[in-house]
Automatic annotation (TrEMBL):
Entry keyword rRNA processing: no
KW tRNA processing (keyword) present: no
Name used for this protein in its record: GNAT family N-acetyltransferase
Top-level division of the source organism's lineage: Bacteria
Domain N-acetyltransferase: 7-178
UniProt-listed PANTHER family: AMINOALKYLPHOSPHONATE N-ACETYLTRANSFERASE-RELATED (PTHR43877:SF2), AMINOALKYLPHOSPHONATE N-ACETYLTRANSFERASE-RELATED-RELATED (PTHR43877)
PROSITE patterns from the UniProt entry: GNAT
Keyword annotations of the record: Acyltransferase, Transferase
Single GO MF descriptor: acyltransferase activity, transferring groups other than amino-acyl groups
Length: 180
């Protein structure tokens, strides 16, 4: 069965079971997607952070048959640009379009709110290729996002440097949002 037919996108409410599910999903997906980039034991997030984001209304979840199968966080950067991050889909439904539906949902929502552009940031190893980051670059460019010049991680996120296992850089991808 096609997962998209049973998919429901909603704001994450601060219910403990969903907070735990989103936290576990993000940490599991990022542990694989960023393998080798961080000091062992480093996790992407925790329940306190996800609870805070749920209370501010910045996380959307994809639910299928009552189960959380994906998530994305989106916030305004300024009056014309929004940014998404924390995009993850359950490996059991990967390839069914969950991530694409989440991205489309936040792009549409923010275009309707008058935002002119959407951006995202990818952290990647500076001196080596990382398979999941190559995949993300292809995905985002295929979706119309244009990468800017990479910047050293310490210029944008100096607080993350102590947790790095390898030198990393960040790349911001931007896309104009069409009017609905």
């Amino acid at each position: 069965m096609n997962e998209q037919h049973t998919l429901r996108i909603e704001r994450l409410a601060p219910h403990e079971s969903d907070i735990v599910a989103v936290t576990a999903l993000l940490n599991a997906v990022y542990a694989v997607a960023e393998d080798g980039m961080w000091v062992p034991g480093t996790t992407r997030t925790d329940t306190d952070e996800i609870t805070r984001y749920a209370r501010e209304g910045s996380i959307r979840i994809a639910r299928s048959h009552g189960r959380v199968v994906g998530c994305i966080r989106v916030t305004p950067v300024d009056a014309t640009t929004a940014e998404f991050g924390m995009l993850a889909s359950d490996p059991k439904v990967r390839g069914t379009g969950v991530g694409r539906v989440l991205i489309d949902t936040v792009e549409t929502e923010f275009a309707e709110r008058g935002f002119e552009a959407m951006q995202l940031e990818v952290i990647r190893p500076r001196d080596t290729s990382h398979e999941s980051k190559v995949f993300l670059d292809r995905l985002y460019t295929r979706l119309g996002y244009v990468p800017e010049e990479p910047a050293p991680l310490d210029t944008r996120h100096p607080e993350l440097v102590p947790a790095l296992a390898v030198l990393c850089e960040t790349v911001v991808y931007r896309k104009p949002l069409g009017r609905p």
